[in-house]
Design goal:
The chain is mostly beta strands. The chain has one helix at residues 2-15, and strands spanning 38-39, 41-43, 49-51, 58-61, 67-69, 83-91, 95-102, 106-114, 126-134, 142-150. The chain has one domain (2-150). The protein contains one helix and ten strands; from the N terminus they run αββββββββββ. The strands form three sheets. Strands 1-7-8-10 form a four-stranded mixed β-sheet. It has a four-stranded antiparallel β-sheet with strand order 2-9-6-4, with no helix packed on it. The radius of gyration is 17 Å and the shape is globular.
């Protein structure tokens, strides 16, 4: 619990000085000081498709050749206009998800954390794979990291 408190202090410092607007999303590009970075749209791998090659922890997919799918499967991606980003990451028990912001040079992966509610179960960490769409063909970027903490509506 003490460690979470230290994390929150560090995150408030990252978000900036002064009083924060309580209505502002602490996980927005503005709150994370990412300038003009745009939130990338998540994408989900269809159930009847698999990744045909090993991309490692993070990678870019620029063609349908990277996937093996059933005949009737539709990826729903136009690779002439879109690049997919695959991110495999370890989700801690306090994490609620991953957002990706793109400024044209760097994709900043922002891990969303929540403060615990009373009587929360003790979740276990797990490995997740998240996918995002860059609205640009054959895009490549560097990767950056950020994190944010929000207050859940506890019952």
């Amino acid at each position: 619990m003490k460690q979470l408190g230290m994390t929150v202090v560090a995150l408030v410092t990252l978000a900036g000085s002064g009083a924060a607007d309580p209505k502002e999303d602490p996980c927005s590009a503005k709150a994370l000081k990412l300038g003009t970075a745009k939130l990338l749209t998540p994408w989900q791998l269809p159930a009847n498709c698999t990744v045909g090659n090993d991309l490692g922890g993070r990678g870019f997919v620029t063609s349908a050749d990277a996937f093996t799918c059933a005949k009737d499967a539709k990826l729903g991606v136009d690779f002439a206009k879109t690049t997919l980003v695959r991110v495999t990451w370890n989700m801690s028990p306090a994490a609620t998800g991953l957002a990706a912001f793109d400024d044209g040079k760097t994709i900043t992966l922002a891990t969303r954390f929540r403060s615990p509610c009373p009587n929360d179960p003790h979740p276990m960490p797990m490995t997740m794979t998240s996918w995002f769409q860059i609205p640009s063909a054959k895009a490549t970027r560097a990767f950056g990291e950020a994190s944010c903490t929000f207050q859940p509506a506890c019952k």
